[in-house]
């Protein structure tokens, strides 16, 4: 990462030392390969220790990282002939949600996802991945189109939440999200949702009512942001780190709670370390679960989705 996370600094410092040694050995024509290999092995050991024991707050940091791959980056690797559609046919085109059609290994699919920016300029254009009502209505339009033409739907979830500005509320933000929840629950075509970064509140759920819900290993999924929870419970958003300890927002927590169905393993250090490898893992997952959903009777598919939603959570 260009903006190194706090817990990654020891790794970065050691990598810098390795680079300095390599430059020194080359300039002075000295053989330091043994010393360099020892340090490289130490780096790999440190990575395994750090990334296999991440705290919830550290996972939040990774999920929000600027370098984390976006929906469009995955789409161009998984569905290379993707054609993007625009507009909700009611008000406008919302750039914080992208959607369209493409061919996935011979299967026509509709792909929809939240889209964050990779820099300040793009983030402003994409509204930092926080959709307006027209974004959710665009998504629903594409879902109903997919249902009409019997195309499976794949959604990528990555948002801090729906935009809560005055204009969004005036245009029916709550109604747009509620309508997506209702319509997705009864769509007569398979739906697969994958949380690739941050899954926040109803803004995420509006793309997340699915037959299969998976999360990338270091992604998060919660009813509210840690800062929001800390503000409500303790009147101090600065206690967000403490909030993550009780929120159960990691993929491992949510798999235990049966909120999600699967976890997709990330490359060591996070998805941004190897986008191609991460994209392959996501593609392999979709291709693995899709046949069982495509081959089931439509009425049974919808009924199973309903039963799955009703069974979410663990009670004592």
Automatic annotation (TrEMBL):
Name of the gene encoding the protein in the UniProt record: accA
Protease in keyword set: no
Name by which UniProt lists this protein: Acetyl-coenzyme A carboxylase carboxyl transferase subunit alpha
Catalytic activity: N(6)-carboxybiotinyl-L-lysyl-[protein] + acetyl-CoA = N(6)-biotinyl-L-lysyl-[protein] + malonyl-CoA
Subunit structure: Acetyl-CoA carboxylase is a heterohexamer composed of biotin carboxyl carrier protein (AccB), biotin carboxylase (AccC) and two subunits each of ACCase subunit alpha (AccA) and ACCase subunit beta (AccD).
InterPro entries on file: Acetyl_CoA_COase_a_su (IPR001095), ClpP/crotonase-like_dom_sf (IPR029045), COA_CT_C (IPR011763)
HAMAP family reported in the protein's UniProt record: AcetylCoA_CT_alpha
Compartment(s) of residence: Cytoplasm
Pfam families hit by this protein: ACCA (PF03255)
